[in-house]
Design brief:
By secondary structure, chain A is an all-alpha fold. In chain A, 32% of the residues lie in helices and 0% in strands. The N and C termini of chain A lie far apart (42 Å). In chain B, 33% of the residues lie in helices and 10% in strands. Chain B starts with 23 loop residues before the first strand and ends with a strand. Classes of the chains: A mainly alpha (139), B alpha+beta (277). Chain B: Its main location: periplasm.
């Protein structure tokens, strides 16, 4: 029962409204868990954010990418609502051509792997966790 | 934001970039690993994947005795002499000494094949000769002698510049199709070949150092796999990494991609078997 109630309050990927480069409300209706977000960020099967971004807070991890900007201080540069929008669909924030994937959008490439059709890279809960983590990255 | 954020502006990061070394094999063969791009190429300079590897990996390619891919090339040399099929022939029966008959040949593939009305690569040309001239079964993708024999034939062009003749048959149409595929975003990660190899070559993507994704070293020896890797296997791996379904080896899509990607490396020396991580 609890999980049904939880699922009902989750905003579906197609229903997320990005307004003025921001998504103001939590996708789950609840705040994320920053400690979980820190793990999702590094996990190669989930966010794999380190593939492209370096971040001093995770210096225990080998190999940080340099394709995107280092995320130190990203919690100062962007608001929580803006960070959520960047994660949901980076293409709507940066440009159509950005290399950064949209983590909670169905606006994806062609020939998507069969078992992933209709699925987003991260769940709403995972997005909220990562947002909660990013907001802690202050300088 | 988008404008200030395009690639190459993180002044605080020391980018690894391609190395400045020169590749000379066995202190004899001076390889062209950087050259001016052909007309119509989106980049100014064409750079071999060799420049993007670590000093240790680069060193392995400078010495044929150290190059672990040379074992497979030797295996290919033996297959060349081996009689197979109902006609009682080997490759050597018709083509003799490969160092003469195959010198420079691999540098010009894919070529136009009148019989099939499509481009043909070395792997398919081997199969054509096996079936039509030897009465033998065609090799299945990446199986049996396919990789070693392909590497052996391409190795006879070591140091020769990659040069395709796009005026043959419908080669230009296949080049066009390959170009479309190169810029088409695939999979859940929504990436094209160009996103990684054109926009971000020279950058690290986690532990990998992105190159221009050129085809001049194939089949390449990959240290990670401890084996030769064919060009269609590499294409499929890169497409799979975008979380997309990938086309069959030797399908029209991958043949078109091979024509276009090989052309992007025009002027680079054939490095087969190149050593990669």
């Amino acid at each position: 029962l609890a999980s049904t109630a939880f699922a009902a309050s989750v905003v579906a990927p197609g229903d997320v409204a990005i307004e003025d480069g921001a998504v103001s409300k939590s996708l789950t209706g609840a705040p994320g868990d920053a400690a979980e977000g820190r793990k999702t960020f590094a996990d190669r099967k989930l966010g794999n954010c380190l593939a492209c971004h370096a971040v001093t807070d995770q210096s225990e991890q080998l190999f940080h990418g340099e394709v995107g900007p280092p995320l130190d201080g990203v919690g100062d540069r962007w608001s929580e609502a803006e960070l959520r929008a960047i994660l949901v669909n980076s293409k709507a924030i940066f440009s159509e051509d950005t290399i950064m994937p949209g983590f909670y959008t169905l606006d994806v490439g062609v020939d998507v792997r069969e078992d992933l059709v209709g699925k987003t890279i991260l769940t709403a809960e995972q997005v909220e966790d990562v947002v909660a983590y990013l907001i802690t990255l202050k300088e | 934001m988008a404008a200030i954020m395009s690639g190459g502006m993180w002044a605080s990061v020391v980018l690894a970039g391609p190395s400045d070394d020169k590749l000379v094999i066995d202190e004899q063969i001076e390889m062209t690993t950087r050259t001016a791009a052909p007309e119509g190429h989106p980049l100014d300079e064409v750079i071999s994947g060799w420049h993007y590897r670590t000093p240790e990996t680069r060193a392995l390619e400078t010495d044929t005795f150290q190059n672990p891919g040379m074992l497979a090339v030797e295996e290919g040399a033996q297959i060349w002499e081996t009689v197979e099929g109902t006609e009682g022939k080997s490759c050597a029966t018709c083509h003799g000494d490969a160092s003469e008959s195959m010198a420079g040949v691999g540098a010009n593939y894919p070529k136009w094949d009148e019989d099939s009305g499509k481009p043909i690569n070395i792997e398919l040309q081997i199969n054509k000769c096996r079936v039509e001239n030897m009465g033998a079964e065609p090799y299945k993708f990446d199986k049996d002698g396919q990789k070693p024999l392909t590497a052996f034939i391409k190795h006879q062009s070591l140091g020769q510049p990659v040069a395709l003749d796009l005026s043959q048959g419908d080669m230009q149409t296949w080049w066009d199709k390959g170009k479309d595929l190169y810029y088409r975003r695939t999979g859940q990660l929504n990436l094209s070949c160009a996103t990684c190899h054109e926009d971000y070559n020279g950058y690290r993507i986690r532990a990998d150092h992105l190159s221009q994704g050129n085809a001049n070293g194939f089949p390449t020896y990959r240290l990670k796999q401890g084996a030769l890797v064919s060009i269609h296997n590499r294409f499929r791996g890169c497409i799979r990494d975008t979380r997309a379904e990938y086309p069959a080896a030797f399908s029209d899509d991958l043949m078109a991609l091979e024509v276009y990607v090989t052309w992007r490396g025009s002027g680079l020396s054939v490095e087969t078997p190149a050593v990669r991580q």
